[in-house]
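Hey L., structure's done. Input below.
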Amino acid sequence: MTANPPTPPPGLTRVDHIAIVTPSLDEGSVPYRALGLPTDGEDELVASQGVRVRAFVLGDTLVELLEPQDDASPVAAFLQKRGPGLHHVAFRVTHLEAEIARLSALGARFLNTEPRPGRAGSRVAFLHPKWGGGTLIELVEHPH
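Output:
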């Protein structure tokens, strides 16, 4: 007998994207273009995060490449410290403030509890990597 897979909390719907830091969007795009992944629209500057983003589509999940826009960007610091590679995993939520409140009540640590603008009109909040077992977790709410 096969057990039913557990269902996610009501506000969490799926993996939204996996973000990868690169010093150059063009350089970082080479493997994803070779894999045949199409881009999701034009590159976008997300000023609130200090990054330029290029997104590739695979099913209903994106691979986002993040290129820092200046040395003050948190992504620039990450790139200098760790080099190119996996930056964070993002989960789509239906109501960002409700998920922030729910997780805060469970003791989650956030880098920001006030939603910030994200790519493609989304709103985002980041959980502290120490709370995520060493992984930076992003919560993403897309416009309805």
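Residues 25-34 form the longest helix (10 residues). The mean pLDDT is 93.

-- N.
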